[in-house]
């Protein structure tokens, strides 16, 4: 080992203990000492704090040692022996439960009751109650057990939730009663002057931080130990006046608030006759108020600002939620209007009339150019020859050109200029053919635009429905906050919104919060399965956790592919796209032929499909639009397509097949064949896909394959027989095994592009 490393290894290691943890233990141990002064006989009221601290998960050995040391206040070796036995029992029980990862639950009350046995028989006798000694101790033991339940809730609220989130009324009451008992112990141990120093510091801090009338009842609670000790209500009035004075001058700064508090305190002490006593007592009494004032004035402004922001950060927000709801409502209404606009555009495109009255125009042109100067015009009109002209025009429109043999007999017998009639009619039919092609192109363009307008309208309408839903206050927020607090996870803000599968919970928690535990607790508290959808960092130690309803199913995918021998690129392409949290889409496209050209067609087809489905456009609009765009391609290249959109809540798969070989659903011992008879995309203008709906269950496999795989098996019967005998465990091994089996039938030579795409539906736990 190098000398430098040896020297580093021999250096003493420093034990790093967080300062917050050290302060917490110091305050708890000091509180144990003070609590033992609450009762006149120095009875161990600190046992309630010991059990509460163990319940909160603190170190049992440190707490046990502190409890034994606090028993020295009774000035009796029997009291210390009783405390040592009590602490040993509680430490043993706590260590065993933690060793076997078992929560004590209601058993803790039984253990606390058993721990009172040493107190009943070893603690010195008390003459506080006019009862036999054992009965008096039994009363004290019952009081300790009651205080234990009280201290559990209060201490848990202080350690886990205080200054992190809003406390409930019950928690505040428990903390107030803890203060009353602790304050009386402080009065009887360190005196009224130190008690005033502590209570007035807390009062001034509350006035500066809260700046609301909430510090008045807080001040009254602070005065209760003094009221009980003096058996007078005067301290309540005095502390209420102190709080009002500080609040009155808080808007002018903390120096003004502190000065006002000191002035009122000095005036109250004058009314109580302080200035008729000795100078030392006057000085110490005034100092009990002056020190908190100096502390408040000398603290750095950034410390006060940070503390105030912390307190404000954890208050419930009403106005932001109202503002968000107003904004969402306005956006929803605007989206509805835009959706209606696109619906009108769709109607305008679909209702346009081409005005293609070909027969009437051709007839009028022929009558005006040929028949108007003919001497037999009136004779032909009287004999109904013009109706025979309509028949000839209809034949010409159908054939594109007419000849002498197409002329009706009555027209042949009456018309004196048959050759001129045929020439003029053919010329107009040729002009009509060019016009008809232009009109068809315009019509197809309008239909495409109408389809797109319809799709955009549907998308905007869906977004409008989502955006119009208001964020309301929920009772679940309080239930979730309480459940998280019980697990030691403190959320500064919780926001629940949405219904059913759109339900979303957003929480601000510590950055290192365990996501698995969070989802478990939230799912139980809100009675719905939740999963982590997103984690958004806010600061170095805080993050926003977004939970959404977990779908019933999850999906696993497998893909195996082989390029045709001699080609550099596979003409098969596939896509696995998550449309949203609850739906996914898989597609397999097989371009006609192989190589780069076929791959280009497949890529273009899937890219279009993915873009449209990401935009959540209706399926019928997507398929017809993509088919039209491919049909407009200059090259005569087509694409076969297998597509399945699967709902992870229901397991329903909407399967679309366009010119593709059969697909299969393998469910245990059952094999379901999915076939379609449509032509490939781009062959015809109007696509007629084979659409079917399939219900998938947990552990079902959906299998898509290109024609290179199916043709290798020779016949559909051989392929079905092979699939029926399979018992796959995962989709990837299934895809690879199918491709390997197909290649084995062709001498391991890929005669065409081969691709197998598999999906397995898995039930979420």
Short description:
With 765 residues, the chain is α+β, with helices and mostly antiparallel strands. It folds into 4 domains: 17-190, no CATH class; 191-315, no CATH class; 475-549, Threonyl-tRNA Synthetase, Chain A, domain 2 (2-Layer Sandwich); 553-763, Phosphatase 2c, domain 1 (4-Layer Sandwich).
Features:
Threonyl-tRNA Synthetase, Chain A, domain 2, five-stranded antiparallel β-sheet, 765 residues, 4 domains, disordered N terminus, 58% helix, alpha+beta
Question: What does this 3D model show about the protein?
Answer:
This protein has 765 residues and is of the alpha+beta class. The protein has 4 domains: 17-190, no CATH class; 191-315, no CATH class; 475-549, Threonyl-tRNA Synthetase, Chain A, domain 2 (2-Layer Sandwich), CATH 3.30.980; 553-763, Phosphatase 2c, domain 1, CATH 3.60.40.10. Helix content is 58%, strand content 13%. A 5-stranded antiparallel sheet has the order 5-14-13-10-11. β3 and β4 form a beta hairpin. Residues 1-10 and 681-686 have low confidence and may be disordered.
């Amino acid at each position: 080992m190098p000398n430098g490393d040896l020297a580093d290894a021999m250096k003493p290691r420093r034990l790093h203990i967080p300062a917050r943890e050290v302060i917490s233990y110091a305050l708890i141990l000091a509180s144990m000492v003070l609590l033992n002064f609450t009762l006149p006989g120095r009875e161990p009221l600190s046992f309630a704090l010991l059990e509460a601290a163990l319940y909160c998960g603190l170190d049992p050995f440190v707490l046990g040692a502190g409890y034994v040391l606090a028993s020295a206040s009774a000035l009796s070796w029997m009291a210390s022996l009783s405390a040592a036995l009590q602490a040993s029992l509680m430490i043993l029980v706590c260590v065993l439960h933690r060793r076997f990862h078992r929560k004590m639950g209601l058993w803790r009350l039984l253990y606390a009751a058993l721990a009172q046995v040493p107190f009943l028989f070893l603690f010195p006798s008390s003459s506080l109650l006019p009862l036999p000694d054992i009965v008096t101790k039994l009363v004290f033991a019952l009081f300790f057990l009651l205080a234990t339940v009280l201290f559990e809730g209060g201490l848990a609220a202080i350690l886990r939730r205080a200054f992190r989130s809003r406390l409930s009324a019950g928690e505040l009451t428990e903390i107030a009663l803890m203060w009353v008992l602790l304050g009386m112990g402080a009065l009887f141990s360190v005196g009224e002057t130190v008690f005033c120093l502590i209570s007035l510091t807390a009062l001034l801090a509350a006035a500066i931080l809260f700046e609301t009338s909430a510090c008045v009842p807080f001040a009254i609670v602070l005065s209760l130990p003094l009221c009980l000790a003096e058996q007078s209500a005067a301290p309540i009035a005095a502390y209420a006046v102190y709080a009002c004075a500080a609040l009155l001058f808080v808007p002018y700064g903390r120096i003004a608030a502190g000065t006002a508090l000191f002035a009122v305190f000095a005036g109250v002490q004058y009314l109580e006759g302080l200035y008729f006593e000795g100078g030392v007592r006057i000085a110490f009494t005034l100092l009990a108020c002056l020190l908190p004032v100096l502390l408040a004035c000398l603290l750095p402004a950034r410390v006060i600002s940070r503390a105030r922001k912390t307190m404000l950060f954890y208050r419930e927000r009403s106005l932001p939620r109202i503002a968000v709801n107003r904004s969402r409502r306005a956006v929803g209404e605007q989206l509805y209007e835009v959706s209606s606009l696109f619906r009108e555009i769709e109607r305008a495109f679909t209702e346009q009339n081409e005005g293609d009255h070909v027969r009437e125009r051709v007839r009028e042109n022929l009558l005006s150019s040929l028949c108007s100067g003919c001497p037999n015009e009136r004779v032909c009109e009287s004999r109904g020859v013009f109706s025979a002209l309509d028949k000839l025009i209809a034949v010409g429109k159908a054939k594109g050109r007419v000849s002498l043999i197409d002329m009706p007999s009555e027209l042949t017998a009456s018309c004196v200029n048959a050759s001129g009639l045929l020439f003029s009619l053919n010329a107009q039919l040729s002009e009509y053919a060019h016009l008809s092609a232009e009109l068809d192109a315009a019509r197809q363009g309008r239909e495409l635009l109408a389809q797109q307008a319809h799709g955009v309208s549907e998308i905007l309408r869906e977004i409008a429905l989502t955006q119009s839903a208001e964020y309301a206050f929920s009772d679940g927020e309080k239930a979730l906050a309480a459940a998280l607090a019980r697990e030691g996870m403190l959320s500064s803000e919780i926001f629940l919104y949405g219904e059913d599968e759109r339900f979303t919970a957003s929480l601000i928690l510590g950055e290192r919060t365990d996501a698995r535990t969070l989802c478990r607790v939230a799912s139980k508290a809100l009675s719905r399965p939740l999963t982590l959808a997103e984690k958004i960092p806010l600061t170095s130690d805080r993050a926003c956790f977004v939970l959404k309803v977990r779908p019933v199913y999850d999906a696993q995918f497998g893909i195996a592919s082989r390029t045709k021998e001699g080609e550099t690129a596979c003409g098969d392409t596939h896509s696995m796209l998550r449309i949203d949290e609850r739906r996914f889409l898989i597609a397999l496209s097989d371009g006609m032929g192989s190589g780069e050209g076929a791959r280009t067609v497949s890529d273009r087809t899937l890219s279009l499909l993915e873009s449209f489905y990401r935009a959540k456009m209706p399926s019928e609009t997507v398929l017809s639009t993509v088919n039209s765009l491919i049909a407009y391609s200059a090259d005569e290249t087509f694409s076969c397509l297998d597509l399945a959109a699967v709902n992870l809540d229901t397991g329903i798969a909407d399967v679309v097949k366009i010119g593709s070989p059969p697909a299969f659903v393998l469910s245990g011992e059952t094999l379901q064949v999915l076939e379609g008879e449509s032509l490939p995309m781009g062959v015809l203008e109007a696509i007629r896909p084979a659409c079917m709906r399939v219900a998938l269950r947990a552990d079902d496999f959906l299998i898509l394959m290109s024609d290179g795989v199916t043709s290798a098996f020779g016949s559909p019967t051989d392929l079905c027989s092979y699939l029926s005998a399979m018992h796959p465990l995962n989709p990837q091994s299934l895809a690879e095994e199918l491709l390997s089996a197909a290649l084995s039938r062709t001498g391991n030579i890929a005669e065409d592009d081969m691709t197998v795409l598999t999906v397995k539906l898995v039930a979420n736990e």
